[in-house]
Amino acid sequence: MIQFAELKIDALLVSALPNIRYLSGFTGSHGLLLVTPESQTLFTDPRYTIQASQECSSKVKTVAKGPLELAAVEMIRRARFKRIGFESTRLIYDSYQRLKQALPLAASLKPIGPVIEKLRMIKSPEEIARIRRSVLTNSEAFESTVRSIRPGVSEMAIAAELEFKMRRLGAEKAAFETIVAAGPRTALPHAQPTQQKATVNELLLIDMGSCQNGYMSDMTRMLFLGRPSQKIRSMYRAVLNAQLAAIDTVRAGVTAGQVDGKARQVLESEGLAKQFVHSTGHGLGLEIHEPPRLGKKDPTRLEAGMVITIEPGAYIRDFGGIRIEDTVLVTKNGCEVLTTTSKELMLL
Protein backbone atom coordinates (compact mmCIF):
# COMPACT_ATOMS: atom_id res chain seq x y z
CA MET A 1 0.00 0.00 0.00
CA ILE A 2 1.04 3.60 -0.57
CA GLN A 3 2.33 5.10 2.68
CA PHE A 4 0.84 8.59 2.48
CA ALA A 5 1.93 9.60 5.99
CA GLU A 6 5.47 8.40 5.41
CA LEU A 7 5.62 10.24 2.09
CA LYS A 8 4.10 13.33 3.75
CA ILE A 9 1.47 13.80 1.06
CA ASP A 10 -2.33 14.06 1.08
CA ALA A 11 -2.80 12.65 -2.42
CA LEU A 12 -0.77 11.15 -5.25
CA LEU A 13 -1.17 11.87 -8.96
CA VAL A 14 -0.22 8.78 -10.95
CA SER A 15 0.59 9.49 -14.59
CA ALA A 16 2.50 6.39 -15.77
CA LEU A 17 0.08 4.15 -17.65
CA PRO A 18 1.53 0.86 -16.30
CA ASN A 19 1.14 2.20 -12.76
CA ILE A 20 -2.41 3.35 -13.51
CA ARG A 21 -3.21 -0.13 -14.80
CA TYR A 22 -1.66 -1.76 -11.74
CA LEU A 23 -3.72 0.35 -9.32
CA SER A 24 -7.01 0.67 -11.18
CA GLY A 25 -7.19 -1.93 -13.95
CA PHE A 26 -7.47 0.71 -16.70
CA THR A 27 -5.70 -0.33 -19.93
CA GLY A 28 -6.35 2.74 -22.09
CA SER A 29 -3.73 5.05 -23.55
CA HIS A 30 -4.87 8.30 -21.89
CA GLY A 31 -5.45 8.62 -18.18
CA LEU A 32 -4.48 10.26 -14.91
CA LEU A 33 -5.18 8.69 -11.52
CA LEU A 34 -5.68 10.67 -8.31
CA VAL A 35 -5.06 8.43 -5.32
CA THR A 36 -5.88 9.35 -1.70
CA PRO A 37 -5.86 7.23 1.47
CA GLU A 38 -9.61 6.69 1.02
CA SER A 39 -10.24 6.56 -2.73
CA GLN A 40 -9.03 6.54 -6.32
CA THR A 41 -10.37 8.60 -9.21
CA LEU A 42 -9.44 7.97 -12.83
CA PHE A 43 -9.58 10.88 -15.27
CA THR A 44 -9.81 9.98 -18.94
CA ASP A 45 -11.41 11.22 -22.15
CA PRO A 46 -14.72 10.20 -23.82
CA ARG A 47 -13.06 7.55 -26.00
CA TYR A 48 -12.60 5.44 -22.87
CA THR A 49 -15.84 6.08 -20.96
CA ILE A 50 -17.27 2.60 -21.57
CA GLN A 51 -13.92 0.82 -21.30
CA ALA A 52 -13.00 2.53 -18.03
CA SER A 53 -16.37 1.71 -16.49
CA GLN A 54 -15.85 -1.95 -17.37
CA GLU A 55 -12.23 -2.20 -16.22
CA CYS A 56 -11.90 0.06 -13.20
CA SER A 57 -12.84 -0.47 -9.60
CA SER A 58 -12.18 3.23 -8.95
CA LYS A 59 -14.35 6.24 -9.67
CA VAL A 60 -14.16 7.41 -13.29
CA LYS A 61 -14.39 11.03 -14.44
CA THR A 62 -14.70 11.64 -18.16
CA VAL A 63 -13.09 14.90 -19.26
CA ALA A 64 -14.68 16.11 -22.50
CA LYS A 65 -12.55 19.23 -22.94
CA GLY A 66 -9.16 20.38 -21.74
CA PRO A 67 -6.22 18.61 -20.11
CA LEU A 68 -6.86 15.88 -17.57
CA GLU A 69 -4.59 17.70 -15.10
CA LEU A 70 -7.03 20.60 -14.82
CA ALA A 71 -9.91 18.27 -13.95
CA ALA A 72 -7.73 16.66 -11.28
CA VAL A 73 -6.82 20.08 -9.88
CA GLU A 74 -10.50 20.94 -9.54
CA MET A 75 -11.04 17.84 -7.38
CA ILE A 76 -7.91 18.68 -5.37
CA ARG A 77 -9.23 22.18 -4.77
CA ARG A 78 -12.63 20.93 -3.58
CA ALA A 79 -11.00 18.40 -1.23
CA ARG A 80 -8.57 21.07 0.04
CA PHE A 81 -5.55 18.84 -0.34
CA LYS A 82 -2.31 20.66 0.47
CA ARG A 83 0.53 18.29 -0.45
CA ILE A 84 0.21 16.59 -3.82
CA GLY A 85 2.72 13.92 -4.76
CA PHE A 86 3.60 13.29 -8.39
CA GLU A 87 5.74 10.71 -10.17
CA SER A 88 8.93 12.67 -10.72
CA THR A 89 10.42 10.18 -13.19
CA ARG A 90 7.21 9.80 -15.18
CA LEU A 91 5.33 13.11 -15.39
CA ILE A 92 6.16 15.10 -18.52
CA TYR A 93 7.23 18.70 -18.07
CA ASP A 94 4.19 20.26 -19.80
CA SER A 95 1.85 18.40 -17.46
CA TYR A 96 3.89 19.48 -14.45
CA GLN A 97 3.67 23.11 -15.57
CA ARG A 98 -0.11 22.92 -16.00
CA LEU A 99 -0.48 21.43 -12.53
CA LYS A 100 1.82 23.99 -10.95
CA GLN A 101 0.00 26.92 -12.52
CA ALA A 102 -3.51 25.63 -11.78
CA LEU A 103 -3.08 24.50 -8.16
CA PRO A 104 -4.30 26.81 -5.38
CA LEU A 105 -1.59 28.84 -3.66
CA ALA A 106 -2.07 26.79 -0.50
CA ALA A 107 -1.26 23.55 -2.33
CA SER A 108 2.18 22.32 -3.36
CA LEU A 109 3.63 19.62 -5.59
CA LYS A 110 6.04 17.11 -4.11
CA PRO A 111 8.18 14.85 -6.31
CA ILE A 112 7.83 11.19 -5.40
CA GLY A 113 10.19 8.46 -6.60
CA PRO A 114 9.22 5.00 -7.93
CA VAL A 115 6.74 4.21 -5.17
CA ILE A 116 4.33 2.23 -7.35
CA GLU A 117 7.16 0.49 -9.16
CA LYS A 118 8.41 -0.82 -5.81
CA LEU A 119 4.96 -2.20 -5.04
CA ARG A 120 4.93 -3.87 -8.44
CA MET A 121 8.20 -5.72 -7.78
CA ILE A 122 6.40 -8.42 -5.78
CA LYS A 123 3.99 -10.21 -8.10
CA SER A 124 0.65 -11.61 -6.98
CA PRO A 125 -0.30 -15.22 -7.82
CA GLU A 126 -2.49 -13.89 -10.65
CA GLU A 127 0.38 -11.83 -12.07
CA ILE A 128 2.74 -14.81 -11.88
CA ALA A 129 0.16 -16.93 -13.73
CA ARG A 130 -0.05 -14.31 -16.48
CA ILE A 131 3.74 -14.15 -16.79
CA ARG A 132 3.87 -17.97 -17.00
CA ARG A 133 1.40 -17.88 -19.87
CA SER A 134 3.37 -15.14 -21.62
CA VAL A 135 6.60 -17.13 -21.21
CA LEU A 136 4.99 -20.24 -22.66
CA THR A 137 3.59 -18.34 -25.64
CA ASN A 138 7.02 -16.85 -26.28
CA SER A 139 8.73 -20.24 -26.20
CA GLU A 140 6.09 -21.82 -28.44
CA ALA A 141 6.49 -19.02 -31.00
CA PHE A 142 10.27 -19.46 -30.95
CA GLU A 143 10.16 -23.24 -31.33
CA SER A 144 7.63 -23.01 -34.16
CA THR A 145 9.68 -20.43 -36.04
CA VAL A 146 13.21 -21.82 -35.76
CA ARG A 147 12.23 -25.03 -37.53
CA SER A 148 11.91 -23.04 -40.76
CA ILE A 149 15.11 -20.94 -40.50
CA ARG A 150 17.47 -21.60 -43.40
CA PRO A 151 20.54 -19.85 -44.83
CA GLY A 152 19.48 -16.83 -46.86
CA VAL A 153 16.55 -15.71 -44.68
CA SER A 154 16.90 -12.14 -43.41
CA GLU A 155 16.93 -10.95 -39.81
CA MET A 156 13.79 -8.89 -40.52
CA ALA A 157 11.94 -11.89 -41.94
CA ILE A 158 12.78 -14.02 -38.90
CA ALA A 159 11.67 -11.23 -36.53
CA ALA A 160 8.40 -10.80 -38.44
CA GLU A 161 7.68 -14.52 -38.28
CA LEU A 162 8.41 -14.67 -34.54
CA GLU A 163 6.02 -11.79 -33.85
CA PHE A 164 3.36 -13.24 -36.16
CA LYS A 165 3.56 -16.59 -34.38
CA MET A 166 3.33 -15.12 -30.89
CA ARG A 167 0.20 -13.18 -31.86
CA ARG A 168 -1.36 -16.28 -33.37
CA LEU A 169 -0.69 -18.01 -30.04
CA GLY A 170 -2.52 -15.37 -28.00
CA ALA A 171 -0.11 -12.48 -27.39
CA GLU A 172 -1.45 -9.00 -28.03
CA LYS A 173 1.96 -7.76 -29.14
CA ALA A 174 5.68 -8.26 -28.78
CA ALA A 175 7.05 -7.15 -25.41
CA PHE A 176 9.71 -5.11 -27.24
CA GLU A 177 11.15 -4.84 -30.74
CA THR A 178 12.34 -8.38 -31.41
CA ILE A 179 16.11 -8.65 -31.73
CA VAL A 180 17.47 -10.89 -34.46
CA ALA A 181 21.16 -10.58 -35.30
CA ALA A 182 23.30 -12.69 -37.62
CA GLY A 183 27.05 -13.21 -37.78
CA PRO A 184 29.26 -10.39 -36.46
CA ARG A 185 26.11 -8.35 -35.72
CA THR A 186 25.48 -10.64 -32.74
CA ALA A 187 28.13 -8.51 -31.00
CA LEU A 188 25.53 -5.70 -30.83
CA PRO A 189 23.57 -6.35 -27.60
CA HIS A 190 20.53 -4.41 -28.87
CA ALA A 191 20.82 -5.05 -32.59
CA GLN A 192 17.81 -4.03 -34.66
CA PRO A 193 16.81 -6.52 -37.37
CA THR A 194 17.99 -5.62 -40.87
CA GLN A 195 17.99 -7.22 -44.31
CA GLN A 196 21.23 -8.96 -43.30
CA LYS A 197 20.84 -12.65 -44.16
CA ALA A 198 21.67 -15.62 -41.98
CA THR A 199 24.48 -17.55 -43.60
CA VAL A 200 26.25 -20.87 -43.08
CA ASN A 201 28.85 -21.10 -40.29
CA GLU A 202 27.60 -18.03 -38.43
CA LEU A 203 25.93 -17.33 -35.11
CA LEU A 204 22.31 -16.21 -34.95
CA LEU A 205 21.00 -14.44 -31.84
CA ILE A 206 17.28 -14.15 -31.08
CA ASP A 207 16.06 -12.03 -28.16
CA MET A 208 12.28 -11.97 -27.97
CA GLY A 209 9.39 -11.50 -25.60
CA SER A 210 5.62 -11.55 -25.77
CA CYS A 211 3.05 -9.37 -24.06
CA GLN A 212 -0.01 -11.40 -23.07
CA ASN A 213 -2.81 -10.13 -20.84
CA GLY A 214 -0.58 -7.13 -20.20
CA TYR A 215 2.38 -9.11 -18.85
CA MET A 216 5.80 -9.53 -20.41
CA SER A 217 8.25 -12.35 -20.99
CA ASP A 218 11.85 -12.23 -22.19
CA MET A 219 14.18 -14.87 -23.61
CA THR A 220 17.43 -14.97 -25.60
CA ARG A 221 18.65 -18.04 -27.43
CA MET A 222 21.61 -18.72 -29.70
CA LEU A 223 21.58 -20.68 -32.94
CA PHE A 224 24.32 -21.71 -35.35
CA LEU A 225 23.92 -22.58 -39.02
CA GLY A 226 26.49 -25.29 -39.61
CA ARG A 227 29.27 -26.61 -37.38
CA PRO A 228 30.54 -24.16 -34.74
CA SER A 229 34.26 -23.70 -34.18
CA GLN A 230 35.94 -24.59 -30.92
CA LYS A 231 36.18 -20.87 -30.09
CA ILE A 232 32.41 -20.48 -30.39
CA ARG A 233 31.77 -23.64 -28.39
CA SER A 234 34.09 -22.47 -25.61
CA MET A 235 32.58 -18.99 -25.56
CA TYR A 236 29.07 -20.45 -25.45
CA ARG A 237 29.99 -22.77 -22.60
CA ALA A 238 31.47 -19.85 -20.65
CA VAL A 239 28.31 -17.74 -21.00
CA LEU A 240 26.09 -20.72 -20.16
CA ASN A 241 28.13 -21.45 -17.02
CA ALA A 242 27.86 -17.79 -16.01
CA GLN A 243 24.10 -17.87 -16.48
CA LEU A 244 23.69 -21.11 -14.55
CA ALA A 245 25.88 -19.80 -11.70
CA ALA A 246 23.81 -16.61 -11.50
CA ILE A 247 20.54 -18.60 -11.47
CA ASP A 248 21.93 -20.83 -8.72
CA THR A 249 22.57 -17.68 -6.63
CA VAL A 250 19.00 -16.38 -6.89
CA ARG A 251 16.93 -16.69 -3.72
CA ALA A 252 15.09 -14.39 -1.33
CA GLY A 253 17.55 -12.38 0.74
CA VAL A 254 20.50 -12.17 -1.65
CA THR A 255 21.20 -8.83 -3.30
CA ALA A 256 20.82 -8.10 -6.98
CA GLY A 257 24.52 -7.23 -6.99
CA GLN A 258 25.45 -10.66 -5.66
CA VAL A 259 23.67 -12.34 -8.57
CA ASP A 260 25.38 -10.01 -11.03
CA GLY A 261 28.73 -10.60 -9.35
CA LYS A 262 28.45 -14.37 -9.68
CA ALA A 263 27.95 -14.12 -13.45
CA ARG A 264 30.89 -11.72 -13.74
CA GLN A 265 33.10 -13.98 -11.65
CA VAL A 266 32.58 -16.88 -14.07
CA LEU A 267 33.16 -14.75 -17.18
CA GLU A 268 36.27 -13.22 -15.64
CA SER A 269 37.68 -16.70 -15.03
CA GLU A 270 37.15 -17.37 -18.75
CA GLY A 271 38.89 -14.15 -19.81
CA LEU A 272 35.62 -12.53 -20.90
CA ALA A 273 35.09 -9.94 -18.17
CA LYS A 274 35.58 -6.95 -20.49
CA GLN A 275 33.27 -8.49 -23.07
CA PHE A 276 30.30 -8.43 -20.64
CA VAL A 277 28.99 -4.90 -21.17
CA HIS A 278 25.55 -4.83 -19.53
CA SER A 279 23.85 -5.88 -16.30
CA THR A 280 22.96 -9.49 -15.57
CA GLY A 281 19.23 -8.88 -15.65
CA HIS A 282 16.15 -6.87 -14.73
CA GLY A 283 12.68 -7.22 -13.34
CA LEU A 284 9.70 -7.57 -15.67
CA GLY A 285 5.93 -7.55 -15.41
CA LEU A 286 3.61 -4.91 -16.84
CA GLU A 287 6.76 -3.44 -18.40
CA ILE A 288 9.68 -5.24 -19.98
CA HIS A 289 12.16 -3.37 -17.76
CA GLU A 290 11.14 -2.95 -14.13
CA PRO A 291 13.00 -2.85 -10.82
CA PRO A 292 15.07 -4.53 -9.58
CA ARG A 293 18.09 -4.08 -11.83
CA LEU A 294 20.64 -6.85 -11.42
CA GLY A 295 23.71 -4.65 -11.81
CA LYS A 296 27.11 -4.25 -10.24
CA LYS A 297 26.93 -3.90 -6.45
CA ASP A 298 23.17 -3.18 -6.57
CA PRO A 299 22.02 -3.41 -2.92
CA THR A 300 18.40 -4.35 -3.64
CA ARG A 301 17.54 -7.58 -1.82
CA LEU A 302 15.55 -10.09 -3.81
CA GLU A 303 12.22 -11.16 -2.38
CA ALA A 304 9.98 -14.13 -3.07
CA GLY A 305 7.50 -13.18 -5.80
CA MET A 306 9.89 -11.07 -7.84
CA VAL A 307 10.20 -12.04 -11.50
CA ILE A 308 13.55 -11.24 -13.11
CA THR A 309 15.66 -12.06 -16.13
CA ILE A 310 19.10 -13.65 -15.96
CA GLU A 311 20.99 -12.78 -19.15
CA PRO A 312 24.79 -12.58 -19.07
CA GLY A 313 26.55 -12.17 -22.40
CA ALA A 314 29.91 -11.69 -24.07
CA TYR A 315 30.48 -9.63 -27.21
CA ILE A 316 33.55 -9.45 -29.45
CA ARG A 317 33.72 -6.85 -32.22
CA ASP A 318 33.93 -8.29 -35.75
CA PHE A 319 33.46 -11.82 -34.39
CA GLY A 320 30.11 -12.07 -32.65
CA GLY A 321 28.30 -12.21 -29.36
CA ILE A 322 26.55 -14.77 -27.19
CA ARG A 323 23.76 -14.10 -24.69
CA ILE A 324 21.56 -16.62 -22.88
CA GLU A 325 18.47 -15.34 -21.08
CA ASP A 326 15.65 -16.84 -19.03
CA THR A 327 12.69 -15.43 -17.13
CA VAL A 328 13.03 -16.49 -13.48
CA LEU A 329 10.69 -16.42 -10.46
CA VAL A 330 12.37 -15.73 -7.11
CA THR A 331 11.26 -18.08 -4.32
CA LYS A 332 12.03 -18.22 -0.61
CA ASN A 333 14.68 -20.90 -0.92
CA GLY A 334 15.81 -20.43 -4.50
CA CYS A 335 14.12 -19.76 -7.80
CA GLU A 336 12.07 -21.31 -10.57
CA VAL A 337 13.16 -20.91 -14.18
CA LEU A 338 9.93 -20.19 -16.02
CA THR A 339 11.46 -20.43 -19.50
CA THR A 340 11.01 -23.95 -20.87
CA THR A 341 13.11 -23.69 -24.05
CA SER A 342 16.38 -25.62 -24.07
CA LYS A 343 19.52 -23.54 -23.48
CA GLU A 344 21.75 -25.71 -25.64
CA LEU A 345 23.33 -24.06 -28.67
CA MET A 346 20.84 -24.93 -31.41
CA LEU A 347 22.48 -26.23 -34.59
CA LEU A 348 20.56 -25.73 -37.82
What is the number of E strands?
20
Tell me the overall shape. elongated
Separate helix tally: 10
- Kindly report the name of the CATH homologous superfamily of the largest domain: Creatinase/methionine aminopeptidase superfamily
Distance between the termini: 50 Å
What's the CATH architecture of the largest domain? Alpha-Beta Complex
Rg (CA only):
23 Å
Q: Give unreliable regions as ranges.
A: none
What is the third-level CATH name, the topology of the largest domain? Creatine Amidinohydrolase
The proportion of residues forming helix, as a percent range, comes to: 25-40%
The amount of beta strand, in percent, is 15-25%
Would you kindly provide a written description of the structure presented here, covering whatever features stand out?
The protein folds into 2 domains: 117 residues, Creatine Amidinohydrolase, Chain A, domain 1; 223 residues, Creatine Amidinohydrolase (Alpha-Beta Complex). It has a 6-stranded mixed sheet, with helices on both faces. Helix 3 links the parallel strand 3 and strand 4. Helices cover 34% and strands 24% of the residues. The protein is α+β, with helices and mostly antiparallel strands and 348 residues long.
